[in-house]
Description:
By secondary structure, the protein is mostly helical. The chain has helices spanning about 1-10, 20-30, 40-45, 50, 100-110, 115, 135-140, 175-195, 215-225, 235-255, 280-285, and strands at about 85, 95, 155-160, 165, 265, 295-300, 305-310.
Amino acid sequence: MLxxxxxxxxxxxxTLDHPRVLLLRTQVATDSAPWLPTELYLTQVKxxxxxxxxxxxxxxxxxxxxxxxxxxxVCARSALIGASISRCGRCKVVRYxxxxxxxxxxxxxxxxxxxxxxxAVPACKEDYDIQLSPAASYFYRRRARCTICQDASSxxxxxxxxxxxxxxxxCVTTHPKEHCDASILEQCCLGLISDMGAPLxxxxxxxxxxxxxxxxxxxxxxxxxxxxxDAGLLALGPPCAMLTEALSLPIIIAEHLPxxxxxxxxxxxxxxxxxxxxxxxxxxxxxxDLSRLAVCMVGPLLRQVTEKxx
Length: 310
C-alpha cells in the first residue's frame, strides 16, 4: 500500500485531491498520527535539496534553530541524510556539515568560540547551569551529549537509525522506536524549513469547519487537500506534523477563551509561536462571538510582541 501511495504522489499526473491518492492517504492515516509513516516520507525528504545533501542547503532561521547537537548549526543537516558532521576545532561544541556552513556561521560563532573553549565540558545535568553569556549559553546547552545522563565529556555512540540520540558507555542502550521516529520527524521538519520555509500558516482554500473536528484525523480528512501548496507537499509527514503543532495553540485558546474576550496573553511562548497569524484565523472561524482578538506572546526568549487578529 505504501509503495502505491509513493508512486501516486510522485506522479506529475496525479494531484493530492485525486480519488486514488485520497483513498490511499486515508488508509495509511491514524487518529494519533495523521502524517505518513517514516519509511515513506524520509524517502521523499531525501529527494529535496536539504535531504539530497549534494549542494549547500539554506540556513534554518534562528526562530527554528533548535537542532540537536549532532546536527549542523546552520542548516540542521545530520548523518540521517548522509551528511558528514564535524565540530569546531577550537570550542569543540558547534558542529557543521560543510566548510560553507562554517564560513557562513563565523560572524556569529567568533563571538562565542573562545568562551565555549574556556568552559568545562559538562559531565552531568547539573553542569549545564553554569553562567555564560546568552549567545554562548545557547550553543552550550544544545551540545552533543548522552541522551540519558547528559554527559558530554565521554565518547558517545549515535543511534544508527535516527542519528539524533547518543549514549555514553555507562548508559549504552537503545531507545524505543517511537522516540526514534520522533527524532527523524523533527530532523525532517528542519529540513523542510531549510528547503521551503516554515509551513506553519499555509492558507487554505475553504474556511475551517464551523464546528471543531473530532481529532486530527477528521481535520485532515476535511482539509488535507485544500491547502494552497504544490501537489505532493502535504503527502509528507513533516508538513502535517508542523501544521498540527502550529494549530495546537490557537485551538487551545479558542476552546478556553471566555465569550466576548478580545485579549489573551500566552505566557512562556516559544519563538516559533510568533510565526503566522493566519493560523489563528483558520481556527477562530468556529468562534462567531469573536470579531477581534489581540494575542500577546510573552516568554524568556522573546521580545514583547502583539499580533492582532481582525
